[in-house]
Amino acid sequence: MSLASKIDSVRDTFSKSLEKLSAGDTTVIEKLRHEYLGRKGKVADLFSELGSVPESDRPGMGKLLNKLKSELTREIEKMKDAGSTGTASPEKIVDLSLPGDEVTMGSLHPITKTMREVKQIFQAIGFSVAYGPEIDDDYHNFEALNIPKHHPARDMQDTFYITDNDVLRTHTSNTQIHVMENQEPPVRVICPGRVYRNEAISIRSYCLFHQVEGLYVAENVSLAEMKGTLEYFCRHFFGEEVKARFRPSFFPFTEPSAEVDITCLMCCGDGCSMCKKTGWLEILGCGMVDPAVLEMVGYDPVKWSGYAWGMGIERLAILKHGIDDIRLYFNGDVRFLRQFA
Ligand code: DAH
What residues form DSSP beta bridges with 306? Predict the structure, then answer.
C-alpha cells in the first residue's frame, strides 16, 4: 500500500472511532489521542515511513502527513472542549430525565370575561351586539339623549372634551342613538364598550371603565317586560337566590326611570359593610325610553316605545368577586389577574 493510501485509511479509521465517542468521555478521548497522535502512535508510524518514499515525492507526502496530524489534533481538541462546555451535538448531551421548562399561560382579563358573560346572557334572549364610537360628538353623547347644553344633568358626568364639540363618551348610551339613527324599529341590542370620566382616581372610581347599554324598541313595549328582562339577567349573572328591586330614579333619557338593586351578595340582605348596612347593592340604571329621544332619531313615539338600561362592568365584577379596589383592573398586576385564570 502506498503511503498516500495509508494516510487516507488512518484518517478513515480515526473518523469512525470519533463518531462512537461521547463528548464527556475524557478517558476514551485521551486513549484515542494516544493511539493516533502519541509518540508511538499511528501518525508517528506514518512519519517514520517517509524515509522510504522516493526523494521527489517526499515533500508532497510530508505535507499530507502534517495536514493529517493537524486535522486529528483539531478534532481531538474539539471533542475535549465540547465535553467541558456542554456544546456537543444535542443528541449526545440531552438529559431526558430533567424537568421541562415551565410555560406560563396567559389568561383573559376579568373585564373581558365579565363582558363576554353579560353578552352571552343577553344574546341568549335575542339581543344582538352593536358598537359605537369612543370619541363622539356632543350631540350623540348628550343632546340627542335629552341632555341639552347647560342641563344640570351634565354635572353627573365629568366629561373629557377633545374639542369644543367632541368628547370621550361618558357612557355607552351614545350607541343607542347611533343604532336608532341607522335602523328602523324593532331594535333589540346591547352596546358594550369603554367610557371615560374625568373623576379623581380612588378605590371607587377610575378615569375609564366599561359599560353595557341595552335597548329594546318595538310596538307596545311595557315596563313589565323591562323588569322581566333585567330580573332574568340578575338571576343568570349573580345566581338564582339573588332578588332584585326597582327603585324610582331619574335619567334625562328615560321616563319613568329606575335603578336596580340586588340583595347584598355578602350578607344576603342582613346588612354589612359591603352594602353599607342597607342589605342592597345598586347595579344598574334603566327606564322607558323618553319619547323626546325617540323623536330625536325620527321614530314615531306614538307607535313605538321601548326600554333601555346601562350598567358598569367593573362594578358587576367587583360585586360578584368581592374586589375592593377598582384600580386593580387597570394596573396589570399578575398576582391579581392570575386569580381569574
Ligand atoms: N347612561 C347612564 C350612566 O352612565 C346609565 C343608564 C341609565 C343608561 C338608564 C340607560 C338608562 O340606558 O336607561 O350612568
Answer: 217
HEC assignment per residue over 65-94: HHHHHHHHHHHHHHHHHHHHHCCCCHHHHC
CA atoms within 13 A on the CB side of 204: 1
Tens digit of pLDDT at every position of the chain (341 positions): 888 899 999 999 998 988 887 777 788 888 889 999 999 999 999 999 888 888 898 898 989 999 999 999 998 888 877 776 655 565 567 788 888 888 888 889 999 999 999 999 999 999 999 999 999 999 999 999 999 888 776 765 688 999 989 999 999 999 999 999 999 999 999 999 999 999 889 988 899 999 999 999 999 999 999 999 999 999 999 999 999 999 999 999 999 999 999 999 888 888 888 888 999 999 999 999 999 999 999 999 999 999 999 999 999 999 888 888 999 999 999 999 989 88
Query: Does residue 292 sit in helix, strand or coil?
Result: helix
Measured distance between the N- and C-terminal CA atoms of the chain, rounded to whole angstroms: 75
329 lines ligand 1 (CB under 6 A): no
User: What's at 307, amino acid-wise?
Assistant: Y
Torsion angles phi and psi, residue 176, rounded to 5: -50, -50
CA–centroid distance, 287 to ligand 1, in Å, is 8
The response to whether residue 312 sits with its C-beta less than 6 Å from ligand 1 reads no
